[in-house]
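thought: fold this chain, then report.
action: predict
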Amino acid sequence: MLLLAAAFLVAFVLLLYMVSPLISPKPLALPGAHVVVTGGSSGIGKCVAIECYKQGAFITLVARNEDKLLQAKKEIGKHSINDKQVVLCISVDVSQDYNQVENVIKQAQEKLGPVDMLVNCAGMAVSGKFEDLDVSSFERLMSINYLGSVYPSRAVITTMKERRVGRIVFVSSQAGQLGLYGFTAYSPSKFAIRGLAEALQMEVKPYNIYVTVAYPPDTDTPGFAEENKTKPLETRLISETTSVCKPEQVAKQIVKDAIQGNFNSSFGSDGYMLSALTCGMAPVTSITEGLQQVVTMGLFRTIALFYLGSFDSIVRRCMMQREKSEITDKTA
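observation:
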């Protein structure tokens, strides 16, 4: 009976593996495609633009700083594969005025054609203890990280539905999969992106439009360097339990998953575990992916409990050291 059950399981898994590609979306061809990247003047956004340009795409870079945009355009231009490719730069704050964002997208489409893929990379991080953060930090992060993804997506969705083709990428964060010390303002703004992506995917899937949510870990970008200047000790120690990724590596994975139409884009073994643990009712693009999540859930939850225990230990240890230091200062 055990042999029969094992044989049935193996046959079932093989069947799923064979059937899976039949229900997966058709890959998006990047040569000649128009890719819009917000936050494209530096960091992950710039690396995504370079990766798409290397594959023959036309690029529209959107960011606030015009000087940085022009510098990024020069860097990206070095990676062209034919003399027809174009990099268009538009300076705008994607989080402030929807009408302005809509006009910018229209300008880009008039020059380079309909948008085939939108990559929402615009964002920022602010860390600090909940009671130490100014209320304006919560408002600013929700505006930049959440509305800064809503507005460009809203501006491209109608044309994508009319054409029955498109990819929309939201760059969240591993801090958008679990709440961490010091990220009471940042994490909610990245969690919100997940909810938007799931709801939007259900709406647009019948139109052959696929949504991807990327959950990069700490990545060596100018934004990460700026974030580290004010990071609480607890947050820094927790962050140091994992390695810092290169933006080029993150960008390659994001582009690969977006082309394939994968809903989830994760990085490394920790990222894979987090994505399986937090999959919930998230869409899948293959039966195999769903089966893997079901099989690994219990094991990953067990491992996660050890992680959570170590994080709590770090927080308690820092609190005790801080209290001890305060007592010493008072008695000195």
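thought: worth noting. Residues 287-331 form the longest helix (45 residues).
final: tokens above.
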